[in-house]
Automatic annotation (TrEMBL):
Function statement: Catalyzes the conversion of acetate into acetyl-CoA (AcCoA), an essential intermediate at the junction of anabolic and catabolic pathways. AcsA undergoes a two-step reaction. In the first half reaction, AcsA combines acetate with ATP to form acetyl-adenylate (AcAMP) intermediate. In the second half reaction, it can then transfer the acetyl group from AcAMP to the sulfhydryl group of CoA, forming the product AcCoA.
Name of protein: Acetyl-coenzyme A synthetase
Domain Acetyl-coenzyme A synthetase N-terminal: 37-91
GO cellular component: cytosol
PTM comment, free text: Acetylated. Deacetylation by the SIR2-homolog deacetylase activates the enzyme.
Name of the gene: acsA
Binding site for Mg(2+): V545, H547, V550
Keywords associated with the record: Acetylation, ATP-binding, Ligase, Magnesium, Metal-binding, Nucleotide-binding
Family: Belongs to the ATP-dependent AMP-binding enzyme family.
Cited Gene3D superfamilies: 3.30.300.30, N-terminal domain of ligase-like (3.40.50.12780)
Length: 653
């Protein structure tokens, strides 16, 4: 098989096209050359104390200055110790003292075509009223609040209101099922849930409140539910427990002081999948997180005051937290929010939104780009995309074909592309080009951001030589790093800090080329990346075995041209149960009920037994080969990187 046929990772590594920043872009950029970047980066590593001190002084408003920049008792970090600030104040209030008070903060478009614009002063009023509404039902500092909402401005308002009163939010993506919502809510022990009657997706209503009702039969901690009326269908409201948003807010004053929070007070929890079935509540704290989000947004998207910036993620993911809400608003930027599906009512919707609001910066996922390529160039070609000046991608490796299409068809050849590598745990972007400085290479996340020191190491923790694959780790703590896993310190230590002593283990494989560019190879653990969404194979396996007919299940990812990876399930049945197409459908639905539509299996295969090692461990490498239609252990000479990954993953198989 040739490299071309293999596509993906193999082609990526043969990539020798390089795109220097366009002159016009470079002239106006805040960092204008590789020399400048290298100098700044070196300084930020050699004297990180000065670097972070200066950034925190320049970029954030503090109620009280910190005393100690960093207390690092690995793996526990405390940044800006003794400092006080409020994230909501930084995202909203401080802009009211400038001409920005009537600048658009949020430009929102609903899926049915309705739209709203909230200025910073509108946002301030709404956030204050809603903060008071939360207080009126007894929410106090430190109490967790679960948010399960569609992509409407009230989602951002709810997040900011929690930050304002010091109640850590836990946003659960609206695509998760009631079961998944209950798991996350129970782990966080939230007493309040904020939701909506529904949200629009492909012309249909996602029944959020119905899901909440279902969830609450398993979530006894919740005493109050606030419901925003979005879709208007009949829902049930339990008196004493459920409150309409508009009724609760109506009576509130628009005056609500922002609570001065300690730097290390929790700002939010966000659940993400790990290599076991149970999702992890990633804990981010106030000052460090906000600094990371603010700083990276400013430099990596090279923000200008007049920019209209659109990140197409959902606020239910970390990308939406950092790059729809906190990062852009803290910088006083105009952030676009879109409620619905990218291909509704047709494949031109994104391009329509860009043309309509004259979007200058677009940040989206490779899976979306690949879906657009499939639907054809005629869709973007129908729209005026000349307002765009910068493009970004995130969530998974981008294949060079998709990168080139994005560059040419969407960017008209004039927009730099920032391929940004980071994770829920890192809080903000870690490896990315700086658009005015870094020559980009299709499929490559290039160089570390300021203050970030990634390394590639082997199993013993020794740095590998240039060009070789290894584990991606971080050698230095950084302000927006996760602080813990909610309620599970052991797992925190185990997952991130025991692979290599004193260094943060990312779970990704990577290699470095002769330019010092980092190439991300993919996960080395049992996590798969489906359409840029992180899923644990064990999570899907436990969903499958919770079905009465299933004896054992093994789940692997296989390469998929649009989704990146697709879920393939190998299932053995209980004695006496017969495989059938109906059972496949039923199992598929069962997984969706347990987790959500994002976990819908692409393929279910019934088998009499699963391949195992003598110690009883499932041999996933074999299953991945079977799922991908690759010949197992046969000729893999053209699959160099699959084998690197396989070795990293399965060294002990
Ligand atoms: C995993 C993190 C925070 C971004 C949204 C996903 C993969 C992320 C890239 C990239 C190659 C990437 C990694 C990472 N990933 N960005 N630019 N190139 N891979 O956040 O759900 O926490 O997933 O996404 O495998 O570990 P997440």
């Amino acid at each position: 098989m040739s490299d071309e046929q293999q596509g993906g990772i193999t082609t990526v590594l043969k990539e020798d096209r390089s795109f220097p920043p366009p002159q016009e872009f470079q002239t106006r950029a805040s960092v204008k050359s590789m020399e400048e970047y290298e100098q700044l980066w070196q300084k930020s590593i050699d004297d990180s104390e000065t670097f972070w001190t200066e950034q925190a002084e320049t970029l954030l408003d503090w109620d009280q200055r910190w005393e100690t920049l960093l207390e690092w008792n690995a793996p526990f970090a405390k940044w800006f110790v003794g400092g006080k600030l409020n994230a909501c104040h930084n995202c909203v209030d401080r802009h009211l003292l400038t001409w920005r008070k009537n600048k658009a903060a949020i430009v929102w478009e609903g899926e049915p075509g309705d739209s709203r614009v909230l200025t910073f002063s509108d946002l301030h009023r709404e956030v204050c009223k809603f903060s008071n509404a939360l207080k009126s039902i007894g929410v106090t500092k430190g109490q967790r609040v679960t948010i399960y909402m569609p992509m409407i401005p009230e989602l951002a308002i709810a997040v900011l209101a929690c930050a304002r009163i010091g109640a850590p939010h836990s946003v659960v993506f609206g695509g998760f099922s009631s079961e998944a919502l209950a798991d996350r809510n129970n782990d966080a022990e939230a007493s309040v849930m904020i939701t909506a009657d529904g949200g629009w997706r492909r012309g249909k209503i996602i029944p959020l409140k119905d899901n909440v009702d279902e969830c609450l039969t398993k979530s006894p901690t919740v005493k109050n539910v606030i419901v925003y009326k979005r879709t208007g269908q009949e829902i049930s409201m339990e008196s004493g427990r459920d409150h309409w948003w508009h009724e609760l807010v109506e009576e509130q004053s628009a005056d609500c002081p922002a609570e001065p929070m300690d730097s290390e007070d929790p700002l939010f929890l966000l659940y993400t999948s790990g290599s076991t079935g149970k999702p992890k509540g990633i804990l981010h704290t106030t000052a460090g997180y906000l600094l990371g989000a603010t700083l990276t947004t400013r430099y990596i998207f090279d923000l200008k005051e007049e920019d209209t910036y659109w990140c197409t993620a959902d606020v239910g993911w970390i990308t939406g937290h950092s790059y729809i809400v906190y990062g852009p608003l803290s910088n006083g930027a105009t952030t676009v929010m879109y409620e619905g599906a990218p291909n509704w009512p047709d494949a031109g919707r994104f391009w329509d939104v860009i043309e309509k609001y004259r979007v200058n910066i677009l940040y989206t996922a490779p899976t979306a780009i690949r879906a657009f390529i499939k639907s054809g160039d005629q869709w973007p070609k129908k729209h005026d995309l000349t307002s765009l000046r910068l493009l970004g991608t995130v969530g998974e490796p981008i294949n060079p074909e998709a990168w080139m299409w994005y560059h040419e068809v969407i960017g008209g050849g004039r927009c730099p592309i920032v391929d940004t590598w980071w994770q829920t745990e890192t809080g903000s972007i870690m490896i990315s080009p700086l658009p005015g400085a870094t020559p980009t290479v299709p499929g490559c996340a290039t160089r570390p951001f300021f203050g970030i020191q990634p390394q590639i190491v082997d199993k013993e923790g020794k740095e590998v030589t240039q060009g070789r694959g290894g584990f991606l780790v971080m050698a230095k703590p950084w302000p927006s790093m996760l602080r813990n896993i909610w309620g599970d310190e052991e797992r925190f230590k185990q997952t991130y800090w025991s692979q290599v002593a004193g260094k943060y283990f990312t779970g990704d494989g990577a290699r470095r080329d002769e330019k010092g560019y980092f190439w991300i190879l993919g996960r080395v653990d049992d996590v798969i990346n489906v359409s840029g969404h992180r899923l644990s194979t064990m999570e899907v396996e436990s969903a499958l075995v919770s079905h009465d007919d299933v004896a054992e299940a093994a789940v692997v990812g296989r390469p998929h041209e649009v989704k990146g990876e697709a879920i393939t399930c190998f299932v053995t049945l209980e004695e006496g149960k017969q495989p059938s197409p109906e059972l496949k459908t039923e199992l598929s639905k069962h997984v969706v009920d347990q987790i959500g539509a994002l976990a819908r299996p692409e393929e279910i295969r019934f088998t009499d037994s699963l391949p195992k090692t003598r110690s009883g461990k499932i041999m996933r490498r074999l299953l991945r080969d079977v799922a991908a239609g690759r010949e197992s252990q046969g000729d893999t000479s053209t699959l160099e990187d699959f084998t690197v990954l396989a070795q990293l993953r399965d060294g002990d198989e």
